[in-house]
C-alpha cells in the first residue's frame, strides 16, 4: 500500500484559552472593515459582546448580522449577503456554532462571486478565492472552522445540500475553549457527539486509489495517512473528555479537550469525508426537524455495526483509543468492543438510541432510505458497499434500536 496523504487547513490555527484576545491583531492583517456573521447569542453572551467591542476599540469598523438561523435557509444567507455587500468588508468573521461559520463562508463566497448559490452545489465549483474569512467557534462539534464545506437548506430540495471547495477554508481558525463555557449541557453533548462521528467516519472511510488527479478533482479524497493522524487525536480526546465536559460544564480542561477533538475531527473529515451516518441523517433531519449532531450520533453505532467487517483493524484501534482493550483481545473482539464503547458514551451523554426516539415514524423509514441513497458522495465513501437493500437494513435497525440484525451480516 502506497503511503498517501492530503492536508488542507487554514493558514493559521490559534488554539487555547484566551486566544480570542488576539482577534484585533489577526484582523488587522486583512483590513479595517469587518462583517460578523453570528446569531442572537452574540448580544446575550458577555464574552462575545466584549470580543466585538475589542475590534471597535482597535479602530476597526464592524457591522454585525445576528439573524443566522439553524440549518441555514437560503433566505437567511441572501439577507446576510445583501447587508455585507452594502458594508463592503475587508474580512468576514463567522462567530458562533456551525451555522454561523457556514453562513460566513457563503457570504464570503457571494461577495467574491455573486451568483445563485445553486451554481456552486457540489465539489470544486467555486471559481476562485473568496473574501478573507476568520472562523471563531463557540461550540465544539462541527469543525467548520477548518473545513472546506458549507451546508445549507434549499427549499427546492428535500434534504440539505453542500458547497465544497478548498477556497471556503477560513484563513484563520481562532479556537478559544473559554467561548464554549456558556454552551448548555444538551448542546455540548450533541456537538461533541457530532465531532466523534466525524472522526470515526473519516478514520473508517473508503481508501481511494491515490492518483495524482485525486485531490485535484475531489475535495473529499477518502481515508489517508494525514487524515488518520487527525482522526486518532480526535477520537482519543473525545473518548476521554466528552462525558466530563457534558456533566460539568465548568471543567475547562474537559471543554478544551473536546474543542481540540472537534478541531482535529474537522481536519480529518475535511479531506477524508464522511459516510453513511451523514447520508442517512440528512433525510432524517428533514423529516424530524432534529439536530444534525443528534441524528448522526444516534445512527453511528448502527453504521459501525454494518461496516465492522470491512474495518476490523480500524475499529480495533478505536477500542484501544477508548481504553477498552484488554491483553490478549483479538482485533475481531476489539472491533465489537469499539462499537459498544461508542454506544455507551452516547448513552451516557443522552444521545437518542434510535431514530424512533428522534421522532421518525415507521411510515417515514422507506422515504429516508431512498433519499439517503441520493447522497452519492457519502454513499460511495462508505467502506462497506451500499445499495438500496443495505441502506434499508441500516435504517430499519436504527429505527427499532436493535443492532443484532446488522451484527449477523
TrEMBL record:
<protein>
    <submittedName>
        <fullName>Alcohol dehydrogenase</fullName>
        <ecNumber>1.1.1.1</ecNumber>
    </submittedName>
</protein>
<dbReference type="InterPro" id="IPR039697">
    <property type="entry name" value="Alcohol_dehydrogenase_Fe"/>
</dbReference>
<feature type="domain" description="Fe-containing alcohol dehydrogenase-like C-terminal">
    <location>
        <begin position="188"/>
        <end position="398"/>
    </location>
</feature>
<comment type="similarity">
    <text>Belongs to the iron-containing alcohol dehydrogenase family.</text>
</comment>
<keyword id="KW-0560">Oxidoreductase</keyword>
<feature type="domain" description="Alcohol dehydrogenase iron-type/glycerol dehydrogenase GldA">
    <location>
        <begin position="10"/>
        <end position="177"/>
    </location>
</feature>
<dbReference type="InterPro" id="IPR001670">
    <property type="entry name" value="ADH_Fe/GldA"/>
</dbReference>
<dbReference type="GO" id="GO:0004022">
    <property type="term" value="F:alcohol dehydrogenase (NAD+) activity"/>
</dbReference>
<dbReference type="Pfam" id="PF25137">
    <property type="entry name" value="ADH_Fe_C"/>
</dbReference>
<dbReference type="InterPro" id="IPR056798">
    <property type="entry name" value="ADH_Fe_C"/>
</dbReference>
<dbReference type="Pfam" id="PF00465">
    <property type="entry name" value="Fe-ADH"/>
</dbReference>
<dbReference type="GO" id="GO:0046872">
    <property type="term" value="F:metal ion binding"/>
</dbReference>
Amino acid at each position: 500500500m502506497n503511503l498517501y496523504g492530503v492536508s488542507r487547513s487554514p493558514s493559521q490555527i490559534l488554539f487555547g484559552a484566551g486566544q480570542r484576545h488576539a482577534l484585533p491583531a489577526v484582523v488587522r492583517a486583512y483590513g479595517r472593515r469587518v462583517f460578523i456573521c453570528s446569531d442572537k447569542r452574540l448580544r446575550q453572551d458577555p464574552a462575545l459582546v466584549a470580543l466585538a467591542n475589542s475590534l471597535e476599540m482597535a479602530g476597526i469598523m464592524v457591522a454585525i448580522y445576528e439573524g443566522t438561523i439553524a440549518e441555514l435557509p437560503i433566505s437567511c444567507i441572501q439577507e446576510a449577503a445583501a447587508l455585507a455587500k452594502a458594508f463592503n468588508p475587508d474580512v468576514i468573521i463567522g462567530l458562533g456554532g456551525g451555522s454561523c461559520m457556514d453562513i460566513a463562508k457563503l457570504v464570503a463566497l457571494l461577495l467574491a462571486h455573486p451568483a445563485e448559490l445553486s451554481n456552486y452545489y457540489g465539489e470544486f465549483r467555486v471559481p476562485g478565492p473568496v473574501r478573507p474569512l476568520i472562523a471563531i467557534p463557540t461550540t465544539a462539534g462541527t469543525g467548520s472552522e477548518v473545513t472546506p464545506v458549507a451546508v445549507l437548506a434549499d427549499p427546492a430540495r428535500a434534504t440539505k445540500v453542500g458547497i465544497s471547495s478548498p477556497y471556503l477554508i477560513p484563513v484563520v481558525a481562532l479556537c478559544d475553549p473559554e467561548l464554549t463555557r456558556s454552551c448548555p449541557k444538551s448542546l455540548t453533548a450533541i456537538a461533541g457527539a457530532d465531532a466523534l462521528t466525524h472522526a470515526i467516519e473519516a478514520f473508517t472511510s473508503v481508501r481511494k486509489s491515490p492518483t495524482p488527479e485525486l485531490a485535484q478533482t475531489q475535495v473529499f479524497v477518502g481515508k489517508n495517512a494525514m487524515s488518520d493522524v487527525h482522526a486518532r487525536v480526535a477520537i482519543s480526546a473525545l473518548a476521554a473528555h466528552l462525558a466530563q465536559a457534558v456533566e460539568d460544564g465548568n471543567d475547562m480542561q474537559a471543554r478544551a479537550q473536546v474543542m481540540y477533538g472537534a478541531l482535529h475531527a474537522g481536519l480529518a473529515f475535511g479531506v477524508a469525508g464522511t459516510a453513511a451516518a451523514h447520508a442517512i441523517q440528512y433525510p432524517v433531519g428533514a423529516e424530524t426537524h432534529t439536530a444534525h449532531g443528534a441524528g448522526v450520533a444516534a445512527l453511528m453505532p448502527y453504521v459501525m455495526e454494518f461496516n465492522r467487517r470491512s474495518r476490523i483493524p480500524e475499529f480495533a484501534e478505536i477500542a484501544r483509543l477508548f481504553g477498552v482493550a484488554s491483553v490478549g483481545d483479538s482485533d475481531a473482539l476489539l472491533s465489537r468492543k469499539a462499537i459498544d464503547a461508542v454506544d455507551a458514551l452516547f448513552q451516557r451523554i443522552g444521545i437518542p438510541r434510535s431514530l424512533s426516539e428522534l421522532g421518525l415514524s415507521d411510515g417515514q423509514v422507506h422515504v429516508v432510505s431512498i433519499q439517503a441513497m441520493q447522497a452519492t458522495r457519502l454513499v460511495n465513501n462508505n467502506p462497506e458497499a451500499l445499495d438500496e437493500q443495505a441502506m434499508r437494513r441500516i435504517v430499519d435497525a436504527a429505527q427499532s434500536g436493535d443492532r443484532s440484525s446488522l451484527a449477523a451480516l
